[in-house]
């Protein structure tokens, strides 16, 4: 299914540290989670082992909020959380 990432979501990706590939992986392989107002959400824990705002983190969780419109997924916003959730991926 084609993916359309709106400008707002692209801005949040840049501001929060998510790549387009990470968003696509999250949509393809992520776990569905709750979202408001008829929207859908998926999240995925990814290996990171990098720095964010001066601190090193082993993993990051990418959460994608989207809707299905016709034959495409429209990404509305993206959240990124840094930390450790699993011992191994």
Features:
89 residues; alpha+beta; 5-stranded mixed sheet; 5 strands; 52% strand; globular
Describe this structure in words.
- Strand 3 and strand 4 form a beta hairpin.
- This protein has one domain.
- The protein has 89 residues and is of the alpha+beta class.
- Strands 1-5-4-3-2 form a 5-stranded mixed β-sheet.
- Helix content is 22%, strand content 52%.
- 20% of the residues are buried.
> Strand content of the residues, in percent?
over 45%
> What is the average of the pLDDT values?
94
Rg for CA atoms: 13 Å
Total E-strand runs: 5
> What structural category arises from helix and sheet content?
alpha+beta
Shape: globular
Percent of residues in helices comes to 10-25%
Q: Secondary-structure element order, as H and E?
A: EHHEEEE
Number of domains: 1
How many distinct helices?
2
Sheet with the most strands: spatial strand order? 1-5-4-3-2
Spans where pLDDT lies below 50 across 5 or more residues: none
In whole angstroms, how far apart are the ends?
26 Å
Largest beta-sheet details: 5 strands, mixed
Layout of strands and helices, then pairs:
Layout: E1 3-5, H1 7-16, H2 20-29, E2 31-33, E3 40-52, E4 55-69, E5 72-83
Parallel strand pairs: 1-5
Antiparallel strand pairs: 2-3, 3-4, 4-5
In a nutshell, what does this entry contain?
Helices cover 22% and strands 52% of the residues. It is built from two helices and five strands.
